[in-house]
From TrEMBL:
One of its GO terms (molecular function) is nucleic acid binding. Coiled coil: none annotated. Signal peptide: none annotated. Pfam families: DDE_3 (PF13358), HTH_32 (PF13565). This is Transposase. InterPro entries: Homeodomain-like_sf, RNaseH-like_sf, RNaseH_sf, Tc1-like_DDE_dom, Transpos_IS630-like. Residues 183-323 form the Tc1-like transposase DDE domain. Gene3D superfamilies: Ribonuclease H-like superfamily/Ribonuclease H.
Length: 365
């Protein structure tokens, strides 16, 4: 059988050569990259056999690329995806599958279980929609494409505060427009601070997690942290006490008063009973301290809550302190580091839906 004649690309101009070189250096699509290399090598005079040996492709592939480039130019380098074979399961059935997955088995009269597994959902779909048998993997892919994922249930506690919106707007206004006659300080308690091993995450060798004791006795008692977050500087101030009565809270307020004499303090705090103790409110009224109470079940509006989450993550998680002095020293070290890197607190929940609330949403779907 006679040898097929070699095929070469047409003569390339200098600009076309430079463009091909640029494509071979920058193309991210592997198909376009491979086609550009074929054309460039052919333009350099290399025969079809030489190109197939280097790129590990068939001779027919090389010839097809060269012929296509000779006919259509650089447009021939771009892959034309055909989209594959048509889907066996149409859009309507896919929507029905995603809809059923978001329901409870009880909605279909199934009382044996309260949630779907992929296998149970697949069996129900085959019987309900009269579908041909499909694999569990197909069900999973359909749910993923429909943006339906396996999620943990969360809880929502409805606020009974009739003035929720007014109180929330008051706090947001203090965050957005700090008063010129003073400063805003967020105050709350953190704890209880037990002496116990705390789970946490750390970089470790694969399959070699750090081990903490599983049995322990709480013989060291409990401590409580009372803390304040100054929004002007972003710094935190705290004290650790054995109890968190109104006396301890009043002591924290007096310390804040001494820290910023002459300035009015707007203290954002929750409705914990020591915060509303008559002794506390009377002292605040006489010392230029305005207690700004959060709405009921609205602790998430207190800016210091996020700082407590970071404190728990970086200073306590993954530890197993045996004494309160040891644990308190770890907290103190973290607070010193944090205050050294503190920045003024601005832009609280700027993209949150709460910014558009005109009434309290009694139910969240």
């Amino acid at each position: 059988m006679a040898r097929r004649p070699d095929v070469f690309v047409r003569s390339l101009s200098m600009d076309e050569g430079r463009k091909l070189q640029r494509i071979t250096r920058t193309a991210k699509d592997p198909v376009k990259l491979r086609r550009a290399i074929v054309v460039l090598m052919s333009g350099q005079g290399q025969a079809v056999g030489d190109i197939t040996g280097l790129l590990r492709v068939s001779a027919d592939y090389v010839r097809d690329v060269i012929h296509a480039f000779n006919e259509r130019g650089f447009d021939a380098l771009d892959p034309k995806w055909s989209g594959g074979r048509p889907r066996k399961i149409g859009e309507y059935l896919r929507e029905q599958i995603c809809l059923i997955a978001r329901t409870s088995p009880a909605d279909w009269g199934i009382t044996a279980f309260s949630t779907w597994s992929l296998a149970k959902l697949r069996d129900h779909l085959v019987g309900r929609l009269s579908m041909v048998p499909i694999s569990i993997e197909t069900v999973r892919r359909i749910l993923r494409d429909g943006k339906v994922s396996w999620q943990t249930s969360t809880t929502w506690k409805t606020s009974t505060d009739p003035d929720f919106i007014a109180k929330m707007h008051r706090i947001l206004d203090l965050y957005d427009h700090p008063p010129t006659d003073g400063r805003v300080v967020c105050v709350d308690e953190f704890g209880p601070l037990n002496l116990q091993p705390r789970k946490g995450k750390a970089w470790r060798p694969m399959s070699s997690p750090r081990r903490l004791r599983a049995t322990y006795n709480r013989t060291g008692g409990v401590m409580h942290m009372l803390a304040a977050l100054d929004l002007t500087t972003g710094k935190m101030f705290y004290r650790i006490r054995a109890r968190k009565r109104h006396r301890e809270f009043l002591g924290l307020l007096q310390a804040l008063r001494d820290r910023w004499p002459g300035e009015k303090l707007y203290v954002v705090c929750d409705n914990f009973s020591p915060h509303r103790h008559p002794t506390v409110t009377a002292w605040a009224a006489g010392n230029q301290v305005e207690l700004v109470f959060l709405p009921t079940y609205g602790s998430w509006l207190n800016w210091i809550e996020a700082e407590f989450a970071a404190l728990r993550y970086f200073a306590l998680n993954g530890t197993d302190h045996r004494t309160h002095d040891e644990q308190n020293a770890a907290i103190a070290a973290y607070i010193r580091w944090r205050n050294a890197h503190a920045r003024p607190k601005t832009s609280f929940a700027t993209d949150s839906p709460i910014r558009t609330w005109t009434h309290y949403p009694a139910k969240v779907a």
